[in-house]
UniProtKB/TrEMBL annotation:
GO biological process, one term: polysaccharide biosynthetic process
Keyword vocabulary terms for this entry: GTP-binding, Isomerase, Nucleotide-binding, Nucleotidyltransferase, Transferase
Organism of derivation: Rubellimicrobium roseum
Family matches, as PANTHER family: MANNOSE-1-PHOSPHATE GUANYLYLTRANSFERASE
Protein name: mannose-1-phosphate guanylyltransferase
Catalytic activity: alpha-D-mannose 1-phosphate + GTP + H(+) = GDP-alpha-D-mannose + diphosphate
Higher taxonomy: Bacteria, Pseudomonadati, Pseudomonadota, Alphaproteobacteria, Rhodobacterales
One Gene Ontology MF term: GTP binding
Family the entry assigns: Belongs to the mannose-6-phosphate isomerase type 2 family.
UniProt xrefs under InterPro entries: GMPP_N (IPR049577), Man1P_GuaTrfase/Man6P_Isoase (IPR006375), Man6P_isomerase-2_C (IPR001538), ManC/GMP-like_b-helix (IPR054566), Mannose-6P_isomerase_type2 (IPR051161), NTP_transferase_dom (IPR005835), Nucleotide-diphossugar_trans (IPR029044), RmlC-like_jellyroll (IPR014710)
Residue span(s) of domain MannoseP isomerase/GMP-like beta-helix: 299-351
Length: 474
């Protein structure tokens, strides 16, 4: 059987799952349904004897998060392509296709969003395998999800005939793409048995997709080809040329190619699936007897609720609630009716307009060396918890406006302050004077945790002068 090259797309922002998902740390990297992130679960689902190593397309801000999560899952990617800016799925998919085609023009690719939930992984893999002969024959196979309810938030794929309730052995002819319908139209389409949800999943030969792009989206293909040709490589990442990439039309693969191509087939998938697009979807995936609880939560006489606490030491309690979503983060709390879950995106836009930091910035700031979060802030001081991965090091740096006190609470830190280098162990501290050139490293095999107390006139993250950085940051 042919080997499939998975392409994982993970550049979205997932604003409808605010406050857990934000621009700086979107939903695909969050552990929404268990210990694994959605991205890790997607990578695991597309691994095994049927698949080659994945090609990942992501944003610059997420490159180290993606690499770390893959490493933690024991998966080594074939490539990590870095988009200089989001240009929708058309450019992203063509970049991955061209990259794989450079090694094998007839390679078989499976494009998948990295934030979908497909609990029956083997059933999905079997469905993909059933579509391989059709894709090898020159068809672009799109996967349609058998709907279990009318849904106005999805586009649909219309089949030429009604779907048989039994197992589908091979892809079927596609009659038309259907835009997101109103409620009445969605109900009618689900009832007629000829409509599937558009899952945004595609299986195709690389040369077939490139040929389709050459006919239907030549300007998009040319820009992506040139950007890939001008790509630079550092630390294992492939950075697409930003100036040329910016000229690529921002368009979805559906509008650019799929809706114009005449060689499309639909492979129905009849198992469980969710794009986890809002909190109502999370509730559907996690509810037990109508109630979905996560973290430190208590529900008393509640019905149809989702209660979630992501704030250490904070308990969310619901009494006599019905169809309510309540999500508590350390810096923001969402309370909404479950029927209004789609409107959370508008809330984010309103917060952004008001200049609220919580609109886009996650309370835990992930960096290539680990992460930090603010524990307390006041006039001329800030207290942070900092976690440094084993073997990782922060940049050699200095600050113009603040001094720092570091207290190690777990592990051992190797600390540089000007010309002095020393080890600082648990319950020991070190002072970093204003203007001192300094660095923090974790020489151990376990995460190192410290508390940092900053004092000074200005405490912003942009008050950093970097002299050396192993992660090639400016």
């Amino acid at each position: 059987m042919a080997t499939i090259h998975p392409v994982l797309l993970c550049g979205g922002s997932g604003t409808r799952l605010w406050p857990l998902s934000r621009k700086s740390y979107p939903k695909q990297f969050a552990a929404l349904l268990g210990e694994e992130s959605l991205f890790q679960a997607s990578a695991q689902r597309l691994s095994g004897s049927l698949f080659a190593a994945p090609t990942v397309v992501t944003a610059d801000a997420f490159r180290f998060i993606a690499a770390e999560q893959l490493s933690n899952s024991g998966i080594r990617p074939e490539a990590l392509l870095i988009e200089p800016e989001g240009r929708d799925t058309g450019a992203a998919i063509l970049a991955a296709t061209l990259h794989v085609a450079a090694q094998d023009p007839e390679a078989l690719l499976l494009v998948a969003p990295s934030d979908h939930v497909i609990p029956e992984a083997q059933r999905f893999r079997d469905t993909v395998a059933a579509a391989i002969p059709t894709a090898l024959a020159g068809q672009i196979v799109t996967f349609g999800i058998a709907p279990d309810r009318p849904e106005t938030g999805y586009g649909y794929l219309e089949l030429e005939t009604a779907l048989d309730a039994g197992t589908v052995a091979e892809p079927l002819p596609l009659a038309a793409f259907v835009e997101k319908p109103n409620a009445a139209r969605a109900a009618a389409m689900v009832a007629d048995g000829r409509h599937l949800w558009n899952g945004g999943l595609f299986l195709f030969r690389a040369d077939v997709m490139i040929a389709a792009a050459r006919v239907h989206a030549p300007s998009l293909l040319a820009a992506v080809e040139a950007s890939l040709a001008g790509a630079t490589r550092d630390l294992g990442f492939c950075r697409l040329d930003p100036a040329i990439w910016a000229t690529a039309p921002a368009i979805s693969i559906d509008y650019a190619i799929m809706e114009k191509a005449d060689n499309l087939s639909v492979m129905p998938y009849t198992g469980r699936w969710s794009d986890l697009g809002d909190w109502a979807a999370v509730w559907r995936e996690t509810e037990e007897d109508g109630t979905a609880l996560s973290g430190a939560t208590t529900a008393i006489d509640c019905e149809g609720v989702l209660l979630r606490s992501e704030a250490p030491g904070q308990r969310v309690v619901g009494i006599g609630l019905q169809d309510i979503v309540a999500v508590a983060m350390p810096d923001a709390v969402l309370v909404a009716h479950r029927d209004r879950a789609q409107d959370v995106k508008a809330v984010v836009a309103s917060l952004k307009k008001d200049g609220a930091r919580q609109a886009e910035t996650f309370p835990r700031d992930h960096r290539p060396w680990g992460w930090f979060e603010s524990l307390a802030m006041g006039d001329r001081f800030q207290v942070k918890r900092i976690v440094v991965h084993p073997g990782a090091a922060l940049s050699l740096q200095s600050h113009h406006h603040r001094s720092e006190h570091w207290i190690v609470v777990q592990g051992t830190a190797r600390v540089t302050v000007n010309e002095e280098v020393k080890l600082v162990t648990e319950n020991q501290s070190v002072y970093i004077p204003l203007g001192a050139v300094h660095r923090m490293e974790n020489p151990g095999k376990l995460p190192m945790v410290l508390i940092e107390v900053q004092t000074g006139a200005y405490l912003g993250e942009d008050d950093i002068v970097r002299y050396e950085d192993v992660y090639a940051r400016q």
